[in-house]
Write a structure and sequence with these properties.
Number of strands: 9
Shape: globular
CATH topology of the largest domain: Double Stranded RNA Binding Domain
Distance between the termini: 43 Å
Number of helices: 4
Strand content: 35-45%
Order of helices and strands: EHEEEHHEEHEEE
Structural class: alpha+beta
Radius of gyration: 17 Å
CATH superfamily of the largest domain: Ribosome hibernation promotion factor-like
Largest sheet: 4 strands, mixed
CATH architecture of the largest domain: 2-Layer Sandwich
Helix content: 25-40%
Number of domains: 2
CATH class of the largest domain: Alpha Beta
């Protein structure tokens, strides 16, 4: 697994890099060698945060946690992604057998911040891939988001799946 580090307001120490590489070996049994991991660290008022994003075969696994130290936050993010994989194990195995995780070149998501007089708008772009509603819900769960934008392969239109307050899922389709 290729690991990339990014940090804000602090330096990534060689001890942290060594610990991260050792701890990420847990994922070798789940992912192929072409998997990539991005570890973002940030020092905040109430501790330090670590965001871990793993990309493998077009599927993203993401978790962000805060703790007193970077190592503790890293442990929590790794455990969160392991929980995601265990929770969705049946769905993920089914998709692997069907060949749904065909490796695709990783496309970097670009983030920009635009300043407005009254509020900040954070713009994020990402590749919108054709996928079924079930695949979109799975991707939303793996990213720990409340909604997910995807292209419906049957209609070619952009759709949004989201988590409802009652725990079910909703689908927004254009007219």
């Amino acid at each position: 697994m290729k690991i990339t580090y990014a940090s804000k307001r602090q330096d990534v120490t060689s001890d942290f890099v060594a610990a991260a590489e050792r701890k990420l070996k847990k994922f070798d049994r789940f992912f192929k060698e072409d998997a990539t991991a991005l570890i973002k660290t940030d020092k905040k008022k109430n501790g330090e945060s670590v965001e871990l994003t793993i990309s493998c075969g077009g599927t993203l696994y993401r978790s962000e946690k805060r703790a007193e130290t970077m190592n503790n936050a890293l442990d929590e993010t790794i455990e969160a992604i392991l929980r995601q994989i265990r929770k969705n194990k049946t769905r993920l195995e089914k998709k692997l057998k069907e060949g749904a995780f065909v490796p695709v070149p990783e496309e970097d998501a670009a983030e920009e911040v635009e300043e407005h007089p009254e509020f900040k708008v954070r713009t994020k772009s990402f590749p919108v891939k054709p996928m079924s509603t079930e695949d979109a819900i799975l991707q939303m769960l793996l990213l720990e988001h409340d909604f997910f934008l995807f292209c419906n392969p049957d209609t070619g239109a952009l759709n949004v799946v989201y988590r409802r307050a009652d725990g079910d899922y909703g689908l927004i389709v254009p007219d």
